[in-house]
Specification:
Layout: E1 2-7, H1 12-26, E2 27-35, E3 38-45, E4 55-65, H2 70-75, E5 83-89, H3 98-108, E6 120-126, E7 131-139, H4 142-147, H5 163-171, E8 179-182, H6 189-196, E9 200-205, H7 208-220, E10 226-229, E11 242-248, E12 254-255, E13 258-259, H8 260-274, E14 275-285, E15 295-305, E16 308-316
Parallel strand pairs: 5-6, 8-9, 8-11, 9-10, 11-14
Antiparallel strand pairs: 1-3, 1-4, 2-3, 4-7, 6-7, 12-13, 14-16, 15-16
The structure holds S-adenosylmethionine.
S-adenosylmethionine binds near residues 185, 188 and 263.
Length: about 325
């Protein structure tokens, strides 16, 4: 089955990586292509759209064609039930009249047009290169992310990753289910998203008050999760006990928990130790990291403002970890 994802423009690379990571976890990726913000994915597997953060819509593709072929291709369309056609220009302005013209083609063929509550919402995305047509199957609930904004939670700290971005980053672990750890969990942005997606949630932070606050935040969303006070440099977990790790390093040079280099080096060893073989960790930092003791699958930068760019490293442990 081919699907069309209308990606959010905030970070196209991340939006695309999110779709691919989820698709890998839920089935088999056959091929893909990006045209402006339309990501076309040939995929065999289970549906995962509710998990997405950085896709606005998902359609089941009907066809893609050039602008000159669009009306002719529309004449060939056949489906059961009422319909409505919605056209959007992506990376360009769309012709306002096109929606009516395409609707009229279907009406002349005998289709029942229902603009309010159609059984088939036919989406037409027009890019400078192509036209992509599909049945709408998923529309993002943007309100959910606003409702989980950090200032709406009982425990708040500045410089946290917002819910939508937290979910997209977490999805890069490429897991359908399992045990997720954030060993520097702060207010719990990753843990909240992980809990809402049905993962088993484990968090840890160096500071007692932060641990208490994070627990309150999880309770606020009716989520179960174990949050411990502890040090990422020496974690109280058994080897290979997690299926995925997502964590956001402190944005300061020296912490009460040691120097920056010591924090990074020791945490890498520990993250590698507690992560299961073949599983991913997503490490977020404001620093460019060199020579990571992991296999780096990919890295994506996310610019927040002039003086803060988050670097998102998606890593796997090496098959043979040196003693
Ligand atoms: C950038 S914040 C994480 C923010 C988090 N993603 C959130 O949603 O609030 C980094 C966190 O790392 C914690 N931290 C710093 N050093 C640590 C250590 N050695 N072990 C565990 N946690 C540590 C800090 O207390 C802080 O809460």
């Amino acid at each position: 089955m081919r699907y069309l994802f209308l990606l959010s423009g905030e970070n196209l690379e991340l939006a695309k990586a999110e779709v691919l990571s989820l698709a890998k976890a839920f089935g088999k990726i056959l091929s893909y292509d990006l045209d402006e913000r339309i990501f076309s994915l040939n995929f065999a597997g289970e549906q995962f759209f509710e998990r997405l953060a950085l896709s606005h819509e998902v359609c089941e593709a009907i066809f893609s064609c050039s602008m000159s072929e669009l009306q002719k291709e529309f004449e060939k369309l056949s489906f059961e039930g009422s319909c409505c056609v919605r056209v959007s220009g992506i990376g360009m302005k769309s012709d306002q009249e096109l929606e009516k013209k395409l609707g009229a083609i279907l009406w002349k063929k005998g289709a029942q047009i229902d603009l309010r509550n159609p059984e088939n919402l036919i989406r037409v995305y027009i890019t400078p290169r192509s036209c992509h047509v599909g049945f709408l199957r998923f529309k993002q609930n943007k309100k959910q992310f606003r409702e989980r904004l950090p200032n709406k939670r009982p425990f708040f700290m500045p410089v946290v990753i917002l819910p939508k971005l937290s979910r997209a980053i977490l999805n890069l672990v490429s897991l359908k289910s399992g045990r997720i750890l954030d060993p520097m969990c702060g207010t719990g942005s990753f843990l909240i998203e992980a809990g809402l997606m049905g993962f088993e949630v484990f968090g840890m932070d160096f500071y007692r008050d932060i641990v208490k606050g994070c627990r309150k935040n999880l309770e606020f969303f009716n989520l179960k999760g174990e949050v411990l006070q502890g040090d990422v440099r020496e974690m109280p977990f058994k080897d290979e006990s997690f299926d995925g790790i997502a964590t956001d390093y402190p944005y300061f040079r020296a912490t009460r928990s040691g120097t920056k280099d010591e924090l990074y080096n020791k945490s890498f060893q520990e993250i590698s130790r507690v992560l299961r073989k073949g599983c991913r960790a997503v490490l977020v930092t404001n620093l460019e990291l060199k020579e990571l003791p992991f296999k780096v699958i990919f890295k994506i930068d996310h610019r927040v403002h002039g003086s803060l760019t988050r670097r998102i490293y998606v890593v796997e442990k090496f098959e043979n970890v040196p003693e």
